[in-house]
Amino acid sequence: MPDFSPSRDPLVSELEQALGRDAVAASPEHLAAYECDGLALYKERPRVVILPRSTGETARAVRILNRAHVPIVPRGAGTGLSGGATPVKGGALVSLARMRRVLEVDTVDRLAHVELGLVNADLSAHTARWKLTYAPDPSSQTACTLGGNVAENSGGPHCFKHGATTLHVLGLTVVLSSGEVVSIGGPEPDPQGYDLRTLFVGSEGTLGIATEAWLRLVPKPEVVETYLAPFSSMDAACRAVSAVVAAGILPAALEMIDDRTIAAVEASIFAAGYPRDAAAVLLVELDGSRAEVRRDGTRIQEICKNHGALRFESATDEEQRKRLWKGRKGAFGAMGRIAPDLYVMDCVVPRTRLPQALAAISEIADRLGVKCANVFHAGDGNLHPNMSYDGRNAEEVRRVLQAGEEICRACVDLGGTLSGEHGIGIEKNDFLPMVFRPAELSAFQQVRRAFDPDGLMNPCKSLPSSMCGEIAAAARAPK
Ligand SMILES: Cc1cc2nc3c(=O)[nH]c(=O)nc-3n(C[C@H](O)[C@H](O)[C@H](O)COP(=O)(O)OP(=O)(O)OC[C@H]3O[C@@H](n4cnc5c(N)ncnc54)[C@H](O)[C@@H]3O)c2cc1C
Questions:
Q1: Domain count along the chain
Q2: In whole angstroms, how large is the CA radius of gyration of the chain?
Q3: Looking at residue 337, what is its pLDDT?
Q4: Are residues 108 and 198 in the same domain?
């Protein structure tokens, strides 16, 4: 909500004059709502929150912030899990929450031109009348914005088949930290000049604020089938996943849910009918033509049975199918039953190393006395160890953070990497040297400077904090 109280901060007055009072929030109550994203382990209040209504207003606000040398932190819905939208160094948040129009849908070329404060699920709801859909579907899709998805290169259960956000972005309108507006790509499939789209997608708000995008749409499939395969061991379930992929089958989704998550989901409003006695449940979705789905369904059933599945059930109707997905997508919310706070981690290992990675996670959690449950995109080897904790207990928080670092190290040692979809943010910026050499990190910093010479755009994120000194100094120095 905008702030109507009089303010003495001259920056706030200048922003109010330029954009109107309803576009600027600066009262302590409003700022408190923006002090973190979905990673509540780190908190800092922004100096001011700006809610522009257009690309032009965003550019006007950024020019004012640049002149005042104030760090600029882009924000969508704040569902990020790596602290990317958490303000740092007295920064200003630029929230796209009011920019959520679908500007155009081209049903022939299957494209949508949208403002990037649009909520992910609202795009597919809008295009359903043409039987078109936007494929990347983060589990947070009813809340997160397409701008956040672009910045994090978000994935989702159905990205195993369709690929993550980067494969669905054709063009972007971006406000640079100078306030200049640039186009990166566009509706045409093959842009001229350097193709900067893949550089920008996944850059976590460090290269500019993306305000509009041209996104690819895909036709809704003729048939969708969802299957549930419970297993008595997580190892066996993981081996079944590798065997499905090795057989050359491309399911729309391959999701794994462990016993602790099943217990939390089944005791919650997200109860999906997952068997409580299973050590793991594999959720498989197939889409395509009727013949394809029937053929692949039979083959996956055989593979699961050969790997010890206790049963193999198909959702009998659309209602049951939705219930199975509600359990998976509501799993993080269901964890609220275990403890008041949840740390949702995100790391990746090669699919065939999932059993070793899960064994390492379990050893680390047990040794450090941390409650950890796993629900993950098994097809992509993308793990989400979920640690439940009480943020009021400093000693428990310390153990959770240590477990997080050790889990990242274990995944990297198994040939994996630090993030599949949640990004680096402030959560893992100091872990980057686990996977990059100094020369590589320095190259990242140079790319960043080319877009943002003053170091104002989401500073101290996605680079080790040891490389943030000059950004902090720039933010303090008057121009
Ligand atoms: C319950 C739950 C389930 C989740 N499931 C998934 C999942 O399945 N897959 C997945 O990938 N993620 C998942 N997430 C994480 C999160 O929802 C995604 O990262 C999402 O893309 C963040 O979108 P947002 O609008 O909330 O962005 P925010 O959290 O507001 O911002 C995220 C980052 O993007 C930057 N940013 C935001 N908007 C812009 C913009 N317009 N231009 C430039 N930079 C911008 C911010 O500075 C920040 O660095 C989940 C989160 C929750 C809470």
A1: 5
A2: 23
A3: 84
A4: yes
The answer to whether the beta carbons of residues 372 and 333 sit under 8 Å apart is no
How far is it, in rounded angstroms, from Cα 58 to Cα 94?
A: 8
Q: Are 68 and 411 in contact (CB under 8 A)?
A: no
Q: Is the CB of 152 under 6 A from ligand 1?
A: yes
Nearest of 398, 347, 407, 348 to residue 372 by alpha carbon: 407
pTM for the structure as a whole: 0.93
For residue 459 and ligand 1, the question of a CB distance below 6 A is answered with no
What confidence score (pLDDT) does residue 473 get? 46
CA of 109 relative to ligand 1 center, distance in Å? 27
Kind and range of the H or E run holding 133: strand 132-133
Confirm or reject: Cβ of 455 under 6 Å from ligand 1: no
* Residue bearing the CA closest to ligand 1, atom 2: 140
**From the CB of 213, is ligand 1 less than 6 Å away?**
no
pLDDT digits (tens, 9 = 90+) for 71-102: 999 999 999 999 999 998 889 999 999 999 99
Same domain, 191 and 242: no
Given this model, what pLDDT does residue 479 score? Answer: 35
Q: How far does the centroid of ligand 1 lie from the alpha carbon of residue 152, in Å?
A: 6
Please tell me whether residues 61 and 135 are part of one structural domain: no
Question: What angle in degrees, to the nearest 10, is found between the helix axes of 354-368 and 234-246?
Answer: 150
Q: What is the residue range of 14's domain?
A: 10-95
pLDDT given for residue 466 in this prediction: 86
In the chain, which residues have pLDDT < 50?
1-4, 6, 471-479
Contacts of 10 (CB under 8 A, 6+ apart): none
